[in-house]
Write a structure and sequence with these properties.
By secondary structure, the chain is α+β, with helices and mostly antiparallel strands. Helix content is about 45%, strand content about 20%. Strands 1, 2, 3, 4, 5, 6 and 7 form a seven-stranded antiparallel β-sheet that branches. The longest helix has about 40 residues.
Length: about 350
């Protein structure tokens, strides 16, 4: 694993000029510009149309029979509507500043800068394999030469008016050994029903795979391991490792194949020096605390140590059964029992 203590963070705090932003925008495709909301023509067109409507209404106010109070209310509403695209543009500008700073960060560390990268097949992590839509991208990120990767993953659910954007910050750390699939889902407060982006991992696992660890660790994390792999999870998640993870209890963790993933709902602020410092510290501590356990791990159900494999039953957690499927199974069971009871009644009880 790369010695993260040597990562250069100086570029994160440097100011960004309009020339820097303009140069970055030139590297984006038209679709990416629209996704960011930085296409100028639709916004200007919207403002111009609203201005024409307001001028027309003012000149026709007497003909429409509007008093001054009613007209002022309509005018205020129209202004708010007209300004909405401007707020979208401001938010897009903020994202561009983040991207420019993180692009510098990648360059200063001889790493690859990822921008709207759709090559997500290299990631076995659960958030990358949801198949919600084709519009799944690594919005921005950096890939080091040793496989360490930090970024923000973006995907969408729903269509039309129900379309929602979801963003997860992620860290991928390479492991020297193949690992069983273990997920540590942080227990965060449930958000009110009107918050559309969930803080929870977007996948539910079969509850039979929940395991209990030492101390109060399960107060902060729900831990899942494949059936029969609780002992393996205890071997990897030593008390020292658990103490480290408790310092980052707003993050979710996943061990899968030869990778360790760290997730944060709503994404990382990659232009924030404090957050990047926290990421570097987390990677450093995981390297120190978890690295030794991983280096000595072997799945006793698989072949020899040198083979470096995990048995099939430990490679992936089982997903929770859909409520619809459960309902259908119950309905089929009730129907079968009704048929059996009718047969018994007609054959033996008459």
């Amino acid at each position: 694993m790369r010695n993260v203590k040597r990562i250069n963070l100086e570029s994160i705090g440097r100011s960004v000029t309009l020339q820097d932003i303009s140069a970055y925008v030139q590297t984006l495709s038209g679709k990416e510009k629209i996704t960011l909301g930085i296409t100028v023509i639709p916004i200007l067109s919207w403002v111009i149309v609203m201005a024409i409507v307001l001028v027309t209404m003012n000149s026709s106010r007497t003909d429409l029979g509007l008093n001054m109070g009613s007209f002022a209310s309509i005018l205020l509403g129209m202004i708010v509507i007209a300004l909405a695209p401007c707020f979208i543009w401001i938010n897009a500008f903020r994202k561009l500043v983040w991207a420019v700073r993180f692009q510098r960060f990648a360059r200063d560390n001889q790493a690859t800068f990822l921008s709207y990268d759709r090559e997500i097949a290299r990631h076995p992590g659960l958030i990358f394999n949801l198949n919600y839509s084709d519009d799944q991208v690594i919005r921005e990120g950096v890939l080091f030469d040793n496989g360490l990767e930090i970024g923000n993953y973006q995907y969408y659910t729903g269509n039309g008016r129900t379309r929602q954007e979801h963003v997860f910050g992620y860290i991928k750390i390479g492991a020297t050994r193949s690992l069983p699939h273990i997920v540590l889902d942080a227990k965060k407060k449930k958000q009110p029903f009107f918050i559309t982006i969930s803080e929870y991992l977007p996948t539910d696992f079969a509850p039979s795979q929940k395991i209990t660890l030492e101390g109060d660790f399960n107060t902060y994390f729900t831990v899942y391991a494949p059936d029969g792999y609780a002992t393996d999870a205890l071997y990897l998640l030593t008390p020292d490792v658990m103490n480290t993870l408790l310092a980052y209890k707003t993050f979710d963790f996943e061990l899968i194949d030869t990778s360790i993933y760290v997730y944060l709902a709503h994404g990382f602020h990659l232009a924030d020096r404090t957050q990047v410092d926290q990421i570097v510290q987390l990677v450093t501590e995981l390297q120190s605390q978890l690295g030794k356990q991983i280096g000595n791990y072997r799945d006793s159900r698989s072949s020899a140590f040198a083979a470096n494999t995990v048995a099939i039953q430990g490679q992936r957690l089982k997903l929770a059964r859909s409520p619809i499927v459960t309902l259908l199974l119950i309905s089929v069971f009730v129907w079968i029992m009704a048929v059996v009871w009718r047969f018994i009644r007609e054959s033996f009880l008459q």
